[in-house]
Design a protein that fits this description.
CATH class of the largest domain: Alpha Beta
Number of helices: 8
Structural class: alpha+beta
Largest sheet: 8 strands, mixed
Strand order of the largest sheet: 2-1-3-4-5-6-7-8
CATH superfamily of the largest domain: ABC-type transport auxiliary lipoprotein component
Shape: globular
Radius of gyration: 27 Å
Oligomer: single chain
Number of domains: 2
Helix content: 10-25%
């Protein structure tokens, strides 16, 4: 009997791994986030705690309170699921495992033994705890006006006025991130940040009006637009009050852009601690032809960093690629990267020399910020494969 079992064990060990088994994703659990930002206090949104302004955030009955702790936990879990290197554990799966192991979040923050038990239960390679230390939007404003005078026939007449106004907005996110290994030991405590600045100024000399910002320029004469309208991040507290945290509209806000950058930096920090390190991942050869990248995804549309400067025109078709690592089936090491087709899009608006809006025609659920876009052309290098994330293997404790 023992000889038979030993023989079966040897056979099982000697069997070659399939392609799916060779792609060993690291399984990561986001335990929870704490919120010590003070955002929903009177000054947390960057406004002054005087007069009616204190009702803009955290005070008025119309405000949809942003549950930042839950929101950042969910966005981080989603980002891990979208990464080609990690497999995230859902919150529901986490809660079930905690109930079965009879542990609380307080236990997990204090006990390495209980973290080890939970990691073993979930077959996890790493556990994360985040503490949101800063989440705010600051604003500075300056304005000036001057009347224009006309002198003639011994009389002075006020013919109009010039008005100029400028704003400086800055949204900032700061997170203290704790990373634990599968044995419950703390690997690091890192500060992760993300910020975004929006500067805009305008001059009004009726009927002429010009608005310039770090995102482009708009010029109009009366009701006639002389330039294309620029995309502005949402910064108004009145509009922010009506936006749900983490929604598609939230991603258009200055807060949303800063949040996205912070979570991207969180993933990079995780890669540096548990691998693979970003600088160890070989770059794939870009597709031949005019190429750029997805700068932002907004539902069925997206924005790219190509425009008139690269000869981009409305109606052109694009092929979209994701860069995917290739692992050695024996050692699990990264051998290189390949570009795999994930979708197709059409240019619907060329905004500037390096900025265009596209409509996603194929692969809407698979297209992410940072994916490569290529102007469609007949090329033998164009891959028709579909991007697919393969499952991990058991870690074999």
């Amino acid at each position: 009997m023992y000889r038979i079992l030993l023989y079966l064990l040897i056979v099982a060990i000697s069997l070659p791994l399939s392609a799916e088994d060779a792609y060993a994703l690291k399984r990561v659990v986001v335990l929870y986030f704490e919120d010590h930002s003070g955002f929903d206090s009177a000054t947390g949104c960057g406004c002054l705690p005087i007069g009616p302004l204190k009702f803009l955030f955290g005070r008025g009955g119309q405000h949809i309170r942003w549950d930042l702790a839950t929101g950042f936990r969910d966005l981080t879990t989603q980002a891990l699921a979208e990464s080609p290197y990690y497999e995230s554990v859902s919150f529901d799966e986490l809660i079930v495992a905690m109930a079965e192991e009879d542990v609380s979040f307080r236990d997990l923050s204090k006990s390495g033994t209980k973290r080890t038990r939970l990691a073993d239960k979930l077959n996890a390679d790493a556990l994360l705890i985040g503490d949101l230390r800063k989440f705010n939007q600051e604003r500075l404003k300056g304005n000036a006006s001057r009347n224009m005078l006309y002198r003639g026939d011994g009389a002075t007449t006020v013919t109009g006025g010039v008005q100029a106004v400028g704003y400086y907005y800055r949204a900032a996110v700061e997170i203290d991130l704790k990373i634990y290994d599968a044995l419950g030991k703390q690997l690091s405590l890192s500060k992760v940040t993300g910020s975004e600045v929006y500067q805009v100024g305008g001059v009004h000399l009726a009927p002429f009006q010009a608005v310039a910002s770090n995102r482009g320029t708009e010029v109009s004469m009366g009701n006639a637009k002389l330039t294309e309208q620029i995309d502005r991040p949402i910064v108004s507290y009145g509009k922010l009050d009506k936006i749900q945290f983490g929604s598609a509209d939230y991603r258009k806000t200055l807060f949303g852009i800063a949040t996205e950058k912070a979570i991207e930096n969180l993933i990079v920090t995780l890669q540096e601690r548990i691998g693979p390190a970003p600088d160890s991942i070989p770059e794939a050869e870009p597709p031949a032809g005019i190429t750029g990248k997805i700068a932002m995804v907004d539902g069925s549309e997206a924005y790219i960093n190509l425009g008139s400067g690269q000869g981009i025109r409305k109606g052109q078709l694009l092929v979209i690629f994701a860069t995917t690592p290739v692992f050695d089936p024996d050692t699990g090491e990264i051998l290189g990267s390949v570009n795999q087709r994930v979708g197709k899009a059409e240019i619907v608006e060329v905004k500037t020399d390096r900025f265009s809006r596209i409509k996603i025609l194929e692969g809407m659920d698979d297209i992410r910020k940072g994916h490569i876009v290529q102007v469609q052309q007949d090329s033998p290098n164009t891959s028709e494969r579909t991007h697919e994330k393969l499952p991990r293997t058991d870690r074999g404790r």
